[in-house]
Amino acid sequence: xxxxxxxxxxxxxxxxxxxxxxxxxxxxxxxxxxxxxxxxxxxxxxxxxxxxxxxxxxxxxxxxxxxxxxxxxxxxxxxxxxxxxxxxxxxxxxxxxxxxxxxxxxxxxxxxxxxxxxxxxxxxxxxxxxxxxxxxxxxxxxxxxxxxxxxxxxxxxxxxxxxxxxxxxxxxxxxxxxxxxxxxxxxxxxxxxxxxxxxxxxxxxxxxxxxxxxxxxxxxxxxxxxxxxxxxxxxxxxxxxxxxxxxxxxxxxxxxxxxxxxxxxxxxxxxxxxxxxxxxxxxxxxxxxxxxxxxxxxxxxxxxxxxxxxxxxxxxxxxxxxxxxxxxxxxxxxxxxxxxxxxxxxxxxxxxxxxxxxxxxxxxxxxxxxxxx
Length: 373
Hints:
By secondary structure, the chain is an alpha+beta fold. The protein folds into 2 domains: about 5-280, Up-down Bundle (Methane Monooxygenase Hydroxylase, Chain G, domain 1), CATH 1.20.58.340; about 315-345, no CATH class. The chain is about 50% helix and about 15% strand. It contains 8 helices and 11 strands. It has helices at about 40-45, 50, 60-65, 130-135, 150-180, 190-230, 235-310, 330-355; strands at about 5-10, 15-20, 35-40, 70-75, 85-90, 95-100, 100-105, 110-115, 120-125, 315-320, 325. The strands form 3 sheets. Strands 2-1-3-9-8-5-4 form a 7-stranded mixed β-sheet. Strand 8 and strand 9 form a beta hairpin. Keywords: Membrane, Transmembrane, Transmembrane helix. GO terms for molecular function: cobalt ion binding; cobalt ion transmembrane transporter activity; magnesium ion binding; magnesium ion transmembrane transporter activity. It is found in: Cell membrane. It is a multi-pass membrane protein.
């Protein structure tokens, strides 16, 4: 590996042999044998000015920018309208989530140039999560010479495993939250922020799966057209690749459906979490209400004693000469206390009951009609 780029060349037995040459030393316009080139995205970005002449201008966003997915193909013709080479690429986007705060975006892409005169191919595989050794076990070991989309079907097959890995990582996070809320009194303060982060990841998963399905559908449409454009493709080879692409499309659709179901499941979990917390707050409110009732009862118990002590502490009683004598002005106490108490109760009753009083239904309307004899 040189600067994050690993090159394999087809051997005489159809196997792939690693090469020590650098990418700029290879003749990619007239390759003697088929080549597979694995590249890390950082290596391509840092040195893209050196490698830009190897790709069409429309391919630069795949390496230099952040996109959800892409598919494109084109034919290069000479002045006599003869096919010189066929160029195609497909790109996918995957979010691998390890925990709500630890995730990784990958943007795997395959760029392929097919030369119909020599049946050689130059295949770039960029930013794939698997190592070159693991990928070689999943990619064609023999030359896929007649159908330029065989590599795209194999590459899409490797993507299914990564999308499945992404989905199950999110599913495990959702399942952990479902187990965590079994006892609402033990909910962690980070419970709802965690749910928010997981929901964000699930939304991204749905988005990338939607785009991937559309990318694969575009690939399928172009593969159908290739049967008429390239006469060298045998019917059996074309049919086998068509079925492989349809199988990958079905897998992707299933993953998208499961991801949507996971989003609904998470949404239900968020609603349930809110309800559990609301119930806990309601229980706390009931407890506070019971406590206030207890305080009120205790206050009523001590209220007569307070009244008696307050009454005998006034100047209406004279204890001089060892005798208890009530003054003639004691009636003033009752004259003020009784009206004030009644007025207070009246204001409270009006404040408490008047807003709840609703006008009763009016008299029932009855239409009378003359009765014919």
